[in-house]
Design goal:
The complex is a heterotrimer of chains A (414), B (501) and C (142). Chain A contains eleven helices and 26 strands. Chain A is α/β, with parallel strands linked by helices. The model of chain B has no long low-confidence stretch (mean pLDDT 95). Chain B folds into two domains: 95 residues, Alpha-Beta Plaits (2-Layer Sandwich); 361 residues, Aldolase class I (TIM Barrel, Alpha-Beta Barrel). In chain B, helix 4 packs across helix 14, helix 8 packs across helix 10 and helix 11 crosses helix 14. Helices cover 30% and strands 15% of the residues of chain B. Chain B has 501 residues and is an alpha/beta fold. Classes of the chains: A alpha/beta (414), B alpha/beta (501), C alpha+beta (142). Chains A and C meet through helix 1, helix 8, strand 22, strand 23 and helix 9 of A and strand 1, strand 2, strand 3, helix 3 and helix 4 of C.
Chain lengths: 414, 501, 142
């Protein structure tokens, strides 16, 4: 059996580990356009922050490929998938045959076409290790940095660089920060917090035109000066390769519960996919590292002939800025139960006797218990909801369930 | 009033260098001795509430605690001891009968400690119990006086019902109510594993414990609490409790406070009502009456179960035992004056009754003289503290012994003698669920089994030393005993020679 | 494999497990020296309410969501023991968001995470098990 994996991040690694759980012998080939040992992309902001380094940000140990019997082809892109012949064409002209293929092609930063962008000096996106290194190379203590996009990537970038530069200004067309994961209340709390740390925000506006070191805003007409520019508006799934091969795509590559595409023996995982989001009840893009790993692992198991389903895809984000943490999960539908306690904010979303989503800022301790309520679709009348609402805790479950969780009791005997 | 003030008997010494203020002492003390002072970040304690149960000492992770006598004393007086003075102050204040728990702690002679055991040298050599079989199996019940055969010469079984014990040790009666559900479960499970018996006391048998029936002795006492047909048939034997060593001549009293939930159900009395056992059985005023009750119980259980009659060791115990042996009872249990109790009037506990050693020797002697020793087996109890006490008791004439205080110690009891408060920090003599759960029944059962196993080893060691390989050959074998520091009268009653003779 | 199991019917909420854990992971030899005046941050935590109490620590799941969710690759599984490499951890808290038991928490300082690792680094039986006075916490195969 020959497995071929395109990509070298969480989805790919998940796939290798998924395969190896069931097939210790099969040949695995991993092909990645990036020349690096597998590393964690979300850690690039921590790299700039100084919380990690290139060695420590490796997603798996140095001997990972060797230990797992993986042949790597790094620094080479895949240019074509021929699903009929079950082979790949590489950018260096080689072809690689496969029995089972995983495409974990990831996503690419979306850079909105803006007048004059090509003239802007020191313009970067913030996705890969190379992006981070390039950005870092131009920053000086007198740099004025303009970040376009107040989402997860933009603000993590801000956290990573603020201490290195003179000023950081964030512009976003949305009316609030982190609009993809926070409601208005939460966003207001975080914007205030980040502003107090020294970040300048211009919300509800966008850049109409760039000059070499200037940006003119669309709505206010204000002209901003910058020494470095980070474009962090969002990402787009890399679907082209699979779409060209004939796989069904929507916004992302459509995968089923086995993480298989519409093509036989072709699987996909990670940012490039659009899989089932259990909280939303439909297929969505969940460009999140845990999701990528779990999809890859599921795909790997199925590629190796095991039967495994991944049906608990869920938006979940844990993001922190200078020690203040935000956790969100699920969808923000149904009844919102809000609670503010000093610096802490919490909003639980309850629908049809189920917890479907939450936003927590500050006291995030044990929030995984909430995530599990969503993931398990636990009927809330089976737990002491009044209790668990105050703090995530196992006390809110029945004695029987706790015996299963903590005392190893089997379901039937508990 | 100032006269009510007692300086605390014990003082809690806390090593400030060791204490990490983890507050385990505070959480584990049901008497609320310890508390945490937020202002200073230090633990403080109220010695006056301390009963010296050692729970905090045992659980302190840094060994920062010890409990010592406070040392406060009234002007020294051998007659009016501090204790007698305090008791008067207490009674002057309350007007009530003083209550105490566990056995008589006073300085009466402990004859066990004045008896020494023999060992073989050269002739009749000693036996190594690790290499040779040793028999500690014991059967309790009437022994036939003659062998019966039919016309073909075949044996006609005429054996009355017997209790078979792997070791000559049983757990004495302690009621569910006096001790906790968990303590009962430990006793039952340990008895089952070891192959002996535990005793319900007069509290009835919890429905959960019917499954241990073949290792259970069910008690019928003067209050008849919890007694019904199924109960009688649930056990392996029935014990009629006439008296208890700790409080001869009076009945038991379990305060209504403890008659809660399952206890009320098990005793078959309303919640919250005091369980007062009358001093006598109101249907027993003579040996003939006792005979009637014995046979009523046998009738109720199809003559399949031995009946035990338990009496307290009192002055004319030998004559009483003779009567019991003629009442139809299969086994007599004699309880000495140091036997424990969940609660007894202090005066009675400390002044009524006689030592079990003397009572046992007198009873065995009397029954032998009357030729009725085989009519009845003897269990003795009332402070059997170790395996040597067991060996001595058997050599003095007992078939087996009851242990109860020792069993409680194995479960964690530290003899603070505060059972009557219901706040047992070790989860034994309490019915408060948060305290009861402190006795993990797996652990407790294991401890009881360990203790009995150890005693079993020691008993066979001592038997082997005497050149005896069967407990049968030790029974009443007073030649194996010698007294030390005893008067001729004491030696005569014990039926043993002095050491050196 | 042997795991720590918590039998809540025997838990007394004495909190000794927490202190034993804090001591075992302090790297010190004397408990008083290690914990005196210290606000402990143990990896096993008691939940208690109305006479019910139980300790919660890492369950060492066969399918550990924390490990699968860890964005830095700091969490690994070795011989069934889920381990956090604090050197690699960046303190993103994703594991906290993923753990269904609430058994992962920040280490002192909050920059990296910690969890029960069955005292594998402390030699021998888990300290909480040894310290439990009522065998509510056991270390065994189930």
């Amino acid at each position: 059996m020959k497995y071929v994996i395109i990509g070298n991040s969480a989805g790919a690694i998940g796939c290798i580990e998924g395969i190896r759980r069931h097939d210790k012998a099969g040949h695995i080939v991993l092909i990645s356009a990036e020349p690096y040992h597998t590393y964690s992309r979300p850690l690039i902001s921590y790299l700039l922050l100084g919380a990690t380094d290139e060695q420590r940000m490796k997603y798996r140990p140095d001997d990972f490929y060797q230990q797992n019997g993986v042949e790597t082809i790094l620094g080479v892109a895949v240019s074509k998938i021929d699903a009929a012949k079950k082979q790949l064409k590489l950018s260096d002209g080689h072809t690689v045959k496969y029995d089972k293929l995983l495409a974990a092609t990831g996503s690419t930063p979306f850079v909105p076409p803006t007048k004059g962008l090509e003239k802007a000096a020191n313009a970067f996106t913030f996705m890969t290790l190379d992006d981070a290194k390039a950005l870092d190379a131009v920053l000086t203590p007198t740099s004025r940095v303009l970040v376009v996009g107040a989402g997860l990537i933009g603000l993590k970038c801000v956290e990573g660089i603020l201490h290195k530069v003179q000023s950081v200004t964030v512009v976003d067309l949305a009316d609030r920060v982190l609009s993809s994961i926070l409601n208005e209340k939460g966003a207001a709390i975080m914007q205030q917090y980040l502003a107090a740390k020294g970040v300048n925000f211009i919300m509800g506006d966008c850049v109409a035109e760039f000059g070499k070191n200037t940006a003119r805003l669309q709505n206010s007409g204000q002209k901003l000066e910058f020494d470095a520019l980070v474009m962090a508006v969002g990402v787009r799934p890399n679907t082209q390769l699979l779409a060209d091969a004939g796989a069904e795509t929507d916004r992302g590559v459509l995968v089923d519960e086995h993480c298989q595409t519409s093509l036989p023996d072709v699987y996909a995982a990670g940012d490039c996919t659009q899989g089932y989001d259990m909280a939303a009840g439909e297929k969505r893009i969940l460009a999140l590292l845990p999701n990528a790993y779990l999809q890859g692992e599921c795909a790997g198991a199925n590629m190796a002939g095991a039967e495994k389903e991944f049906t608990t895809g869920l938006a979940m984000n844990s993001i922190g800025f200078w020690g203040r943490h935000i956790m969100t999960a699920g969808v923000y539908e149904g009844k919102a139960l809000e609670e503010t306690d000093g610096d802490n904010y919490k909003c639980l979303f309850v629908k049809d006797n189920r917890l479907v989503g939450f936003i927590i800022i500050g006291d995030v301790a044990r929030a995984g218990i909430y995530t599990a309520l969503i993931r398990e679709q636990k009927p809330l009348d089976e737990v002491d909801f009044e209790l668990i609402k105050t703090h995530p805790q196992l006390m809110a479950f029945s004695r029987r369930e706790r015996a299963q969780m903590l005392a190893g009791a089997k379901e039937e005997e508990a | 009033m100032a006269v009510d003030y007692f300086y605390p008997e014990y003082e809690i010494v806390r090593d400030p260098n060791r204490c990490i203020a983890c507050r385990v002492c505070e959480r584990q003390c049901a008497n609320k001795v310890h508390s945490y002072d937020e202002a200073s970040g230090k633990m403080v304690c109220d010695d006056a509430k301390c009963v010296n149960c050692h729970r905090c000492v045992a659980l302190c992770p840094t060994r920062a605690l010890k409990i010592v006598p406070s040392g406060d004393t009234f002007k020294s007086n051998s007659n009016w001891t501090d204790n007698y003075m305090k008791e008067i102050y207490r009674q002057a204040n309350s007007g009530g009968v003083l209550l105490s728990s566990m056995g008589n702690p006073d300085n009466f002679p402990v004859y066990w400690d004045k008896i020494l055991i023999n060992a073989s040298q050269v002739t009749n050599p000693s036996i190594d119990p690790l290499r040779e079989p040793m028999e500690t199996r014991t059967f309790l019940g009437k022994k036939p006086t003659h062998v019966k055969r039919d016309s073909n010469g075949r044996l006609v079984p005429n054996l009355e019902p017997q209790l078979e014990l792997a070791l000559p040790i049983l757990f004495g009666g302690m009621s569910y109510g006096a001790i906790s559900y968990n303590a009962h479960e430990c006793l039952a499970r340990a008895a089952e594993t070891i192959g002996t018996f535990y005793n319900t006391g007069e509290g009835g048998l919890h429905k959960d414990f019917y499954k241990y029936g073949k290792n259970t002795i069910v008690q019928v006492a003067s209050g008849r609490f919890g007694v019904h047909k199924d109960y009688l048939n649930a056990g392996a034997a029935i014990e009629i409790k006439i008296g208890q060593g700790a409080k001869p001549g009076i009945g038991g009293h379990l305060p209504g406070l403890k008659i809660v939930g399952d206890i009320s159900q098990t005793r078959m009395i309303p919640m919250g009502s005091d369980a007062i056992s009358p001093a006598p059985h109101h249907d027993i005023y003579s040996i003939e009456d006792l005979h009637q009750l014995v046979y009523s119980l046998k009738e109720a259980t199809n003559y399949e179960k031995p009946v035990i009659v338990k009496i307290a060791a009192v002055h004319n115990v030998a004559a009483i035992a003779s009567g019991v042996a003629r009442s139809g009872a299969d086994i007599i249990a004699i309880d000495g004056f140091r036997g424990g109790t969940g609660a007894a009037p202090t005066r009675i506990r400390d002044n009524v009754g006689i030592p079990i050693e003397l009572a046992l020797a007198a009873v065995d002697q009397r029954l032998r003289e009357e030729g009725i020793r085989g009519n009845i087996s003897i269990i003795c109890g009332g402070s059997i503290r170790n395996s040597a006490d067991v060996v001595k008791a058997i050599a003095l004439g007992a078939d087996a012994v009851y242990i109860a205080t020792a069993a409680l110690l194995a479960l964690g009891c530290h003899l603070c003698r505060s059972c009557h408060t219901g706040n047992c920090n070790w989860g034994i003599a309490t019915q408060k669920p948060e305290l009861v759960k402190r006795l993990n029944t797996d652990v407790g059962t294991e401890h009881l089994i360990n203790m009995l196993t150890a005693w079993g080893h020691e008993i066979t060691e001592m038997m082997g030393g005497m050149g005896i390989n069967s407990i049968e050959a030790l029974r009443g074998n007073r030649l194996m005993l010698r007294g030390i520091g005893l008067t001729d009268r004491e030696l005569a009653i014990l039926g043993i020679k002095h050491a050196g003779e | 494999m042997k795991r720590v199991y918590v039998q809540e019917q025997w838990c007394l909420a004495c909190h000794l497990c927490e202190y034993a854990c804090a001591f075992a992971n302090s790297g010190q030899k004397d408990m008083s020296k290690a914990l005196k005046g210290v606000k402990i941050n143990p990896r096993i935590r008691i939940e208690e309410r109305d006479n019910i109490s139980f300790a919660v620590n890492c369950r060492h799941c066969e399918e550990p969501l924390c490990q699968k969710s860890c964005i830095s690759g700091a969490i690994s599984v070795k011989d069934g023991v889920v381990h956090i490499d604090q050197d690699k951890c960046v303190g993103c808290y994703t594991c906290v968001l993923a753990c269904p038991y609430g058994a992962i928490m920040p280490a002192d300082g909050g920059h990296v995470m910690q969890k029960c690792e069955l005292c594998t680094a402390n030699g021998g039986e888990p300290a909480c098990v040894a310290a439990c006075p009522n065998r509510a916490i056991v270390f065994e195969e189930r």
